[in-house]
UniProtKB/TrEMBL annotation, chain A:
Protein name stated in the entry: Teichoic acid transport system ATP-binding protein
InterPro entries for this protein: AAA+_ATPase, ABC_transporter-like_ATP-bd, ABC_transpr_TagH-like, Bact_Polysacc_Export_ATP-bd, P-loop_NTPase
ABC transporter domain location: 75-289
Alphabetized UniProt keyword annotations: ATP-binding, Nucleotide-binding, Transport
SMART domains, sorted: AAA
One GO location term (cellular component): membrane
Gene source species: Streptosporangium subroseum
TrEMBL record, chain B:
Protein known as: Transport permease protein
Any GO CC annotation of this UniProt entry: plasma membrane
Region span, Disordered: 1-26
Residues that span the membrane, as ranges: 80-101, 107-124, 161-178, 184-208, 281-302
Family: Belongs to the ABC-2 integral membrane protein family.
InterPro entries linked to this entry: ABC2_TM, ABC2_TM_bact-type
Organism annotation: Streptosporangium subroseum
Amino acid sequence: MAELTEELSRVKAEDSGVPSTDVRVHPNPEPSGGPESGDDRAGTPTVIVDDLHIIYRVYGAATEAEKGNAATALLRLLKRQGRPQMKEIHAVRGVSFVARHGDAIGIVGRNGSGKSTLLRAIAGLLPPHSGAVYTDGQPSLLGVNAALMRELTGERNIVLGCYAMGMNPAQVKEKYDEIVDFSGIGEFVQFPMSTYSSGMGARLRFAIASAKAHDVLLIDEALATGDRDFKRKSQDRIKKMRDEAGTVFLVAHNLDVIEETCNRVLWLHKGKIKMDGDPKTVLEAYNAV
Amino acid sequence: MSQPESAVADAQAGGPKNGTPEQGQEPLAKLAKRYGLRRAIARPSLPVYLRQLWDRRHFVMTYATSRNVSKYSNSAMGQLWQVLTPLFNAGIYWLMFGLILGANKNIVNYPAFLITGMFVFTYTQRSVSSGAKAISSNLSLIRALHFPRAALPLAYTIQEFQQLLISMGVLVALVLVTNEPVTWYWLLIPVALALQTLFNIGASLVLARVGSTARDLNQLLPFIMRTWLYASGVFYSIEDKVAGTNKALQWIADIMYFNPAAAYIELMRDLLMRTHEPRPYIWMVCVFWAVFAVVGGFWYFWRAEEKYGRG
């Protein structure tokens, strides 16, 4: 609840005419040796987003005038109008950036600023209206949830989820115990997922989704649930993935998570990048608004 | 990540060490090309697509089985319903058309005739109508994970196929109860089912693409399906009704048998029942539709691969 009011107050502040300039903060460009310098892949681009525009078509957004009864529908047909409920939403408006090996990029912004849409576009799941997304390998969204079935046991869901992410039977067998251990749901793995508490469900989903090695991993609000212990475990796992020279994108409203996990933050506002730079600077500016 | 380390990472990212020019000096598209990055959305060629689909075969099978299991997971008798449902269906058709309406006295072994037709038709009907929803009801899955989208209509058809196998068990038991002899033709039953399955896969792929954009299709489908049911000779024999003794009208019957559902029903009856003999024409129609539907279906579905999940 506290988070929500915080968010709302932020929204209010933004609407009340605070100057919004496109600021780009570049961290200290001094090259120096670091832990990643041994990996010659570190620093090469993995994701390039070039002037990306995404337009959504939304059905069923009925307006006041259009009350969706049979008579108005017929009238509309007779007048040869299209469905007025079909709205186009320009969710991402000209975003460009380059992400590199070893980056963990946090994306912040208020609700509806296009964060999730941007992630889906990077994952190649939403076609761009104009512009392009170039990637090295297949970016994958940490979102196996949609493939799981609540009525089935945790066991079956682990297998189903792993296959949905493109594993083969040998890999599933290999990862199975690890997933059960990591999720910490114990004997509940024998029960249908519909009997799980929301925390247990979230833990199992994260455990399944993060079982696969990804070149580019996109995480959308996956860390919001779970107890403190699990949060720490999942953050460790994200760090590990990042150390394996992958690139991680993280969308979260919980700014602490971003500050702890990311080395770069993009601030999206109304589908555009308002700020891009190191977490401290961007989050300070974001909080100040 | 602590601050100094992230500064290092970004320094490497932007610094001259890797010979990477500052962002903005080089068009991003060129930068992408130089590092061999590919566009996130690009439709693979058809052979590559089919190979990707083959790689996902375990997902397709597990997804189909899981859907079948979850379907009855809330009922007390659980998976027993997989057998009970076709059994009850057969019972009701038998009661209605065999006993109460007493239709078609001149068809030998009408219960077997009717239930064969009903089960075979139901298989195609259910594959096609679930295929029509395969994309539109799985948008969240499509927007979350990357896989060849044809996996979904395919999984739906396989789910129906698993149900059909149980129905076939019921059907064979019933045919035996009605004193049909076991013949060599029974060995051809798997071939007939394979042909029908190929047709169903193709048809559900086509319907999946149509259903992903034509949102009114799901309202219309029940009517289309019922018309198809009546035209396919499930309750009556097309041969007897149209041609009868008048051999001059045989060509009209043959046109009606060109309807794939009618042909697959006829083929299964020919194989299962002793009073029928499989005609070469029926075989040809069945093979034609299987090949045509599966080739055309994959091609048609693949053409819109990158558009699924949008809007």
